[in-house]
Design a protein that fits this description.
Helix content is about 25%, strand content about 15%. The chain is α+β, with helices and mostly antiparallel strands.
Length: about 140
């Protein structure tokens, strides 16, 4: 397990900062968000400190979606978002990978999302497909 002495989420995992813990295993920690967008808004964080998803070993990610599912069920959320941001321009505030499970009970509570879709050039999309496929 990797941690950072200055990281607020690492401090929460260690118990140095109190939280409303909902779930804990050897690899992840889940707790209620203290600035929720809706009732039941929770965070799921790997116990391995890394700023971006690409910094986290796969074994620390295996439980994330099953726990998000459990949290959504526990919150009786029929509509919800699972959100994960990487980097400040992508709206990441805390530099430790974290996943939000945000219930969306109505149009005004929960996550509001804009989706500025772009027109597609099929030739460029095909070239991108080949480029990405060759790197996976």
């Amino acid at each position: 397990m990797s941690s950072s002495a200055a990281c607020i989420f690492c401090k929460i995992i260690k118990g140095d900062i109190p939280s409303f813990k909902l779930f804990e295993s050897d690899k992840i920690f889940a707790f209620l968000d203290i600035q929720p967008l809706s009732r039941g808004h929770a965070l799921i964080i790997p116990k391995f400190h890394g700023e971006k998803l690409t910094d986290i070993p796969d074994e620390y990610l295996n439980e994330v979606l099953p726990v998000a599912k459990k949290l959504a069920k526990a919150a009786d959320a029929t509509d919800f978002n699972v959100l994960q941001n990487n980097g400040t321009i992508a709206h990441q505030v805390v530099p430790h990978v974290h996943f939000h499970m945000i219930p969306k009970p109505n149009e005004t509570e929960g996550l509001g999302v804009g989706w500025p879709a772009q027109a597609t050039d099929m030739d460029k999309l095909k070239a991108l497909h080949e480029e990405l496929k060759s790197k996976i």
